[in-house]
Design goal:
Blueprint: E1 30-31, H1 37-44, H2 50-61, H3 76-85, E2 86-87, E3 92-98, E4 104-109, E5 115-123, E6 126-130, E7 134-136, E8 151-154, H4 157-171, E9 179-184, H5 194-205, E10 217-221, H6 225-232, E11 239-243, H7 249-255, H8 264-273, E12 282-288, H9 296-306, E13 311-317, H10 331-342, E14 347-349, H11 363-374, E15 383-389, E16 392-397
Parallel strand pairs: 1-2, 3-16, 6-9, 9-10, 10-11, 11-12, 12-13, 13-14
Antiparallel strand pairs: 3-4, 4-5, 5-6, 7-8, 15-16
The structure holds S-adenosyl-L-homocysteine (SAH) and iron/sulfur cluster (SF4).
Length: 412
């Protein structure tokens, strides 16, 4: 870092034309985030020696520089030239909400003004970053706030990996120094955007780049059956979590419209066929909805569905949000359900993190949209504005906020 490389005879103009990497408007700068080493080399053009591409790649994925100007391994004239054609492509921070339990929810603005949520959940021994894979979601689950947005668009590989790298840059995370988990459980259905998701994973695990272990990435799907078979062949392949959420075909189809197309029987067959590695277990997620799927009979059916698979079950007590027609079960009901399941299968309760900062999936973004439509500035029912910056505010929950936080029970 900080060493200025001399100009070499190799990197003289003429400059290659913007072209094959996908930039349409020649006046628009090409974002480098999301390009792999080969693509950076192609974008630079053959006039440059290969090591220039590597310097840029490392500056983005290892050092996570803020701008091209900060790539001090390149000579100044080259940085100036590159700056006319490229941008790093970082998202812009619109707002950050900090919860009493340390969870930080970032509302990030993408190049075209679309907003996504990224969440950082620090724990004593590790950090977890939850990223979005789409803007909105087309699946329409009845208990999920993201569903009300519909699908706005898919995220690109750079926008997906960029959320992790952005948080790492912002708060100084380094997977080589402290355990970092990445969960693809934010807005969107990752298996309906598998190509970009797969590329984002390749970028994040590259040992020459960010260097995250693929064992630390978990992809959560609602159950897009043919894509589960596709995922099984992916290399590198993340861990897999299935949002089961119901134990009969009828109930699943009511809660998750796409389950009419990909039935429970087909989903369970895909799970049984899934080639688990020796160190791996499938995860089944189960959102607990009071009086709907939280009865003893549900727990027993859940065990009979998953009992033969090397797996664990994560129970997610429903996160209430305006307009969602469900309730969260009482704590004793949640624990009773857990007790029944864990007689046969490891079972954990994922007590919500950051429920005092609009904890439900998509809630933050919906709130922002509602404010936009109402024409009001940053505000919150449960938070005080404690700091502002250009275009965003930091909201902190005041005394008496609704949070009731319990420790994570799953330490695997
Ligand atoms: N689309 C993917 C990943 C994003 S949703 C999927 O469905 O798996 C991530 C998790 O949040 C899923 O397990 C989903 O069932 C759960 N979820 C959605 N809305 C919720 C809510 N209101 N309360 C609790 N969990 C919710
Ligand atoms: Fe989409 Fe997942 Fe929400 Fe269902 S739970 S609407 S699949 S984000």
């Amino acid at each position: 870092m900080g060493v200025r490389a001399a100009t070499t005879a190799h990197d003289q103009p003429p400059w290659p034309k913007v072209g094959s990497i996908g930039i349409k408007d020649p006046l628009m700068k090409l974002p480098l985030l999301g390009l792999d080493l080969l693509q950076i080399r192609q974008a630079l053009g053959e006039a440059f020696p290969a090591y220039r591409a590597r310097q840029i790649y490392e500056a983005i994925y290892c050092q996570r520089v803020g701008s091209i100007e900060e790539i001090t391994t390149l000579p100044k004239w080259l940085r100036q030239e590159l700056d006319t054609r490229f941008t790093i492509g970082w998202p812009r921070l619109r707002r950050v909400f900090e919860s009493a339990d340390g969870t930080r929810r970032f509302l990030l603005e993408l190049d075209d003004g679309q907003l996504v949520e990224t969440v950082l959940m620090p724990e004593p021994d590790r950090d977890t970053v939850c990223v979005s894979t789409q803007v909105g979601c087309s699946v329409g689950c009845k208990f999920c706030l993201t569903a009300s947005l519909g699908l706005r668009r898919n995220l690109s590989a750079g926008e997906i990996a960029g959320q992790v790298l952005w948080v790492a840059r912002q708060v100084g995370l380094d997977p080589h120094r402290r355990q970092l988990n990445v969960v693809l459980m934010g807005q969107g259905e990752p298996l309906l955007n598998l190509e970009a998701v797969a590329k984002a994973i390749r970028l994040l695990v590259d040992p020459q780049g960010f260097g995250l272990s693929v064992r630390r990435i978990t992809l959560s799907t609602v159950g897009i059956v043919p894509k589960i078979y596709e995922l099984a062949k992916l290399e590198p392949r993340p861990k897999l979590a299935i949002s089961l959420n119901a134990t009969t075909q009828e109930q699943r189809a009511q809660l998750i419209p796409i389950a009419r197309k990909y039935t429970l029987a087909e989903l369970m067959a895909a799970c049984r066929a899934y080639p688990l590695r020796s160190w791996e277990r499938l995860t089944f997620e189960y959102v607990l909805l009071r009086g709907v799927n939280d009865q003893e009979a549900d727990a027993r059916r859940l065990v009979s569905l998953v009992g033969q698979i090397r797996c664990k079950v994560n129970l997610i007590p429903f996160n209430p949000a305006p307009g969602l027609p469900f309730q969260r079960p009482e704590e004793n009901e949640i624990l009773r359900f857990q007790q029944i399941v864990q007689r046969s299968v490891p079972c954990f309760v994922r007590w919500s993190r950051g429920v005092d900062v609009f904890g439900a999936c998509g809630q933050l973004r919906c709130m922002e949209l509602a404010e936009k439509e109402a024409g009001s500035g940053p505000r919150s029912e449960s938070g005080n504005l404690v700091a502002t910056g250009p275009g965003f505010g930091i909201l902190r929950v005041g005394p008496g906020g609704p949070a009731k936080l319990s420790p994570e029970l799953d330490n695997t």
